[in-house]
Amino acid sequence: MEPEIVRNVGDLRARLATWRVGGETIGFVPTMGALHEGHLSLARAAAEKTDHVVASVFVNPTQFGPNEDLHRYPRDEAGDRKKLGDAGVSIMYVPQMQEVYPMGEQTRVILPELGDILEGAYRPGFFTGVATVVAKLLIQVLPTLALFGEKDYQQLLVVQRMATDLSMPTRIEGLPTIRESDGLAMSSRNVYLGEEERVQAKALYEVIKDMARRFRSGESPEALSQWATGCLVDAGFRSVDYVTVRDAGNLSEVEAFDEKRKFRILAAAHMGGARLIDNIAV
């Protein structure tokens, strides 16, 4: 059964209140639409963990830079609705712009350290836009649990930090990246890849897997970053923003492998008209 579509905060809160009165739990999956199996895996997990699931579809303008793909970002409300229904979602929240950014709005949520490195350095203002819209959506829905994919690992850490800092009552959980059969991380932007580019793009996952293995064997992060960058360029990527080993908890730079610590390898690179990101745990 397809989920009910709700387009404003008042109707959403009225609908959710009937569940809360009965003590039922609410799961939440925020998305920008153009849904793929990565999104749907989050929705199904939320349906298993909570009594009811809300999924939002909102292409957030404040997380796009001036030369990015806001206006051509893929949109398919009807298709998304059917997919969410199959995944067990009860409400598809599709807020109008004024519901999220009312006339005269001024407030922004800024994480000056975690939000300014890696993705934040290459996409200035990106995590301010992400943190702001997620904060607004969490306040509007007030879910018991919100699920995010580890494919956007830095985003997951930003949201968890924000929720903790602002004493939000929602539990934030991350779930593993969903991949295509050849290892490419699923992304709505993969549709920007041409046929040959799609074949070449699988190198991103292969390179960071090799990087993880070599890091565990004792190679330095700096040398590995240079090596991996060269591999990606040789594989057909037109440029590499970063490919780096970081502390898994706060994304600080590291000097060497330590079996007592958790690490993350994160990468962002350009293939044709797509900017692809990926990461793996070490």
What does it look like?
This protein has helices at residues 9-21, 37-49, 77-86, 97-100, 119-122, 126-141, 153-165, 195-201, 203-216, 221-234, and strands at 4-6, 26-31, 52-57, 91-93, 145-149, 171-175, 239-247, 263-271, 274-281. With 282 residues, the protein is of the alpha/beta class. It has two domains: 4-175, Rossmann fold (3-Layer(aba) Sandwich); 188-276, Pantoate-beta-alanine ligase, C-terminal domain (Pantoate--beta-alanine Ligase, Chain: A,domain 2). The strands form two sheets. A six-stranded parallel β-sheet has the order 1-4-3-2-5-6, with helices on both faces. A three-stranded antiparallel β-sheet has the order 7-8-9, with helices on one face. A hairpin with a 2-residue loop joins strand 8 (263-271) and strand 9 (274-281). Helix 6 crosses helix 7 (153-165) and helix 9 (203-216) packs antiparallel against helix 10 (221-234). The mean pLDDT is 97.
Q: How are the secondary structure elements laid out?
A:
Layout: E1 4-6, H1 9-21, E2 26-31, H2 37-49, E3 52-57, H3 77-86, E4 91-93, H4 97-100, H5 119-122, H6 126-141, E5 145-149, H7 153-165, E6 171-175, H8 195-201, H9 203-216, H10 221-234, E7 239-247, E8 263-271, E9 274-281
Parallel strand pairs: 1-4, 2-3, 2-5, 3-4, 5-6
Antiparallel strand pairs: 7-8, 8-9
Helix pairs in contact: 6-7, 9-10
